[in-house]
Design brief:
The protein is an alpha/beta fold. The chain is built from 23 helices and 14 strands. The strands form five sheets. Strands 1-2-3-4 form a four-stranded mixed β-sheet. Strand 3 and strand 4 form a beta hairpin. Helix 1 runs antiparallel to helix 5, helix 3 crosses helix 11 and helix 18 runs antiparallel to helix 23. The longest helix is centred in the last third of the chain and has 16 residues. The protein is elongated, with a radius of gyration of 33 Å. It starts with a helix and ends with a helix. The model has no long low-confidence stretch (mean pLDDT 94). Bound molecules: glutamic acid.
Amino acid sequence: MDTITLSNLLFPDVTMTPEELEEKFPPRNVPEGAVVTRMAPSPTGFVHLGNLVQGLTSERLAHQTGGVLFLRVEDTDAKREVPGAVEVLINTLKHYGIFFDEGATIDGDQGDYGPYRQRQRAAIYHVYAKKLVAEGMAYPCFCTEEELAAMREKQEANKETTGYYGKYAMWRDRSEEDIRAQLDAGHPWVLRFRSTGNIANQFKFNDLVKGELTITENDIDHVLLKSDGIPTYHFAHAVDDHLMRTTHVVRGDEWLPTLPFHIQLFKALGFKLPKYVHIGPLMKMDGTSKRKLSKRKDPELALTFYKAEGFPVEAVYEYIMTLLNSNYEDWRRANPTAPATDFKFSPKKLNPAGNLFDYAKLMDVSKNEISRMSAEKVYTLLLEWAREFDPDFAEKLAADPAYATSILAIGRGGKKPRKDLATWNEAKPYMGFFYDEYMQKPDFGDKFSKDIIISVLNKFLATYDFADDSTVWFDKVKAITAEIGFTADMKAYKADPTAFPGTVADVSAFIRLAVTGKTNSPDLYTVMQILGYDRTVARIRAAVQALAD
Ligand code: GLU
């Protein structure tokens, strides 16, 4: 059978031509050198840090060159699709500030190069499938699962490369009679690419991250269309990225092994090859060795984890920038308040081997990020987080915004702001004592006698004046220290600890414990000022009472 007849037989419904599609999706009107790129995730319901790494890379490349970033939903694998996953994907990326110029949105597709959901593009793929068949570059394969399994077994037994190639490509050159018989019997078929590649041939290829690669030609007749007429990733990648006029393909390097096939496919289709930016995996230290972050083992791979922990979006964004471009941190030190988008992002600075994800570093970055925020901003973000993840705390925060903000203002501003919080999840342990319901009962330990502690607290109550400034306040604490025979001279104490029963630090600790229930707190004078006279005194009295009981 001639190939034109075969193409009509396989695709009787295709009426459009590739030329019409070329016209419908013309080259984009973007400035010279502008990057047109996309994020093309599969809606599996799981959005991970890797998506964000790729998303940010694409976003920066597109927007810093005046180009276009679009979102394409790769939903060809209906089996893996989870209901609502597209919405989760779109909302999560939005939450992390990845802004798309066009593509799939919650309210449908936006843009002139759609549809942007692959299942809605079946008719488009068929146009090119028909063309390939007509030109002798693709053919139907009627192999059953069993036949393919037997083939694989045989190849393994012979220690040969597995796959559908060369002499194993059973349907490559079958007679018209055989093909018609199968079609007439209504047997399912897949469309395969007729590879002309030879694994003895190699060529050089330049990847924007990996640098120069030596590529071995592909000789496998890969599947282009599955038996339901839906394309494989490979075929959809070529057709979509061509028609959507993608200039740069940013994707995970798990696609490198099939890159030879993609290059071949673009050529067979007469498409210009885009540039490739293959991103290495995210890894973590496991004991002394590195391994890829795994969905099964590492909860920190899921973006929902960062939201639930309460990492501000800015912090995650900032941390990923430090991962992606090694010179980002230096730039940040020199430009502490500049928007991250001022940084000149370069794909060449991406680590070809992938990045080591360092949770402790993320915490550090986040601490810095939060320490630079205004108390009002911290309040807003914390409340937003608490509304979703700790409604009880949210209620308390919302009941008196001015009070909560004054707590969050402690140690803020100035050259060396306090760095108490890395996540919103840490806020309650840090500041919960400001709310009576969250105040823990003080544990004074047994290093000092109850009488001493009671006497310190009573003396403090006797002289405490809310109007005192912090110096007068501390002078009074020192006076109590002297009265009970402790020392305020820390140097002398360090030189001979046996010479004194205790120090001013112990005296402060008794008062701190009584007022905050904790051994650690921000500046105690300020804490009391925020708590107010009545609450401070009531807490100290309660502690005295509890000690006396
Ligand atoms: N759907 C593919 C994935 O999720 C997209 C890869 C690409 O960006 O081309 O891995």
